[in-house]
Amino acid sequence: MADVWDCYHWDLAAVEDQILSNIGSDVPLVREIATFVLQGEGKRVRPLLLLLSARLCGCQGHEMHALASFVEYIHTATLLHDDVVDDAGFRRGKEAAHRLWGNQSSILVGDYLYTKAVRSIVDFRIHELNSVIAESVQRMTEGEIMQISLNCHKSVLSQTEYIQMVERKTGALIAAACQMGAILADADASDQEALFQFGLLLGTAYQIVDDMLDYVGQGDRLGKTLGNDIRQGKITLPLLHLLHHVDEIRRGDVQAVLEQSHVDHGDIERIVALMNEYGSVQYSMTIAREYVDKAKSALVGFGESTAKQALYIAANYMTTRDH
Amino acid sequence: MADVWDCYHWDLAAVEDQILSNIGSDVPLVREIATFVLQGEGKRVRPLLLLLSARLCGCQGHEMHALASFVEYIHTATLLHDDVVDDAGFRRGKEAAHRLWGNQSSILVGDYLYTKAVRSIVDFRIHELNSVIAESVQRMTEGEIMQISLNCHKSVLSQTEYIQMVERKTGALIAAACQMGAILADADASDQEALFQFGLLLGTAYQIVDDMLDYVGQGDRLGKTLGNDIRQGKITLPLLHLLHHVDEIRRGDVQAVLEQSHVDHGDIERIVALMNEYGSVQYSMTIAREYVDKAKSALVGFGESTAKQALYIAANYMTTRDH
Question: May I ask the CATH class of domain A2-320?
């Protein structure tokens, strides 16, 4: 992956520049919070995939850097709202914005970044871009709501429901980023569709791995503590696998933990030990790898190129990253 | 105003129908909350003004009803977020959604309604509509943020700052609604601009009156208690006027109340009595009337018609309504 960062160093630096220079509000609090949340720490997965998709389809122009920055604004807006929704303490290794400026500011600056992105994207005056981004953001929001409503009815969550939620919550925006790169390059409908599918499958893998890492990360490495999802009563794939495979007595024990208002370190350790015994983390990784493989095969119609190579490497990175 | 509701009864019923039928999510919790917040109680000011603007410019088609419903979605999204930001107990005479479903759901269903509206508006495939709505929502969000940041620095808020905030917070979307009606009717740029100005001025008047009514409403008539803005430390025009005109000792007393963590009924009564003594509520009404007059004069270029008459009546209604 380091080669990809190297090879597209200039493109990524241009995006970074656009991210900070496009905030553009004359309200000081907007600039202050937006700059804080946008500065530095993000992996910029969505901008990178947009750039590579655009390059794959032969795009030469510079608009892709601005467009990529707006996709990162939308992603950042969802992070701001998620952190309020989850009452998260840390984000990207630093204190979460709502802890510093309050929930009010986080909700409203999230709204601002989202509206700024929409405003800037419609200024491209390309109907296809508008449709793709609007559709994806709608699905993303539905995914978030599915998550909180599924968590209220813990017993009924199936793997299919989990995947549907993940496809919307994370897949939709990554799919849109890839398709938007293709649209900017004036790619034909089938190339656009292939890149949309690539992004959807890869985004799904990305979230599965993210959820899995909650059970293998080392404390502050993720900027949050191990087993945080359990503390929030969030059921993700490893836990789902465990609940479906563990014997009835231990299942009762796990479910009792999920219903506790306070989950302590011992509870988490017990559940993680069970997950290791039943291969639940392993299972998540297998499913994630399947999605990565399907994503890569969506690109089979494209000829060989540096950009295609980079997309393959980025795809593999999803299941090899440790944060 | 009753004549306007009568005369455009059919148009408004069509909008009401669109409001409920366009929610269109297959996620049950989205449908449940969105239906709850959209049902019945709203005054539908923005849809009405969009319809009248469209009619004024000769629009005959039916798309205006759908477009008006999407503007109401955006307005409702901001109400959902505002109620979380303000921790409001009631909205439109019924318990606020976040009290029933939690802050999480209110934030996310607000996001959903906003993204659904954007998604539906871009489907019209009219670039001007996209620009107008995106610009207005961005300004609206900035207005909300200005409000919370100005309230943090109470001493420096001037009337100019208050007006700038109100123009963004409320004027921007009403201005957009009016201009969108004109765009749908294929009106020329000067008619579009006139309706934009009409909406901006009228929306500003509307918010000034709304803020003023916080000090003259009778308890539950507004679905919230008298002087609620003081409880939230929100400085609006009557209070601003009072602070600028009252003698120094009493100003100190008022400012001390604003800084208290708990404001009781006696505090509010004392401040309202001072406002009456200094004519602060009266003053707000005078300013609001000036804005209404300026709004009406923005329409001077349009020939006489039922729609123009209705817009004049709607404009006057802003300063005669009692809720």
Answer: mainly alpha
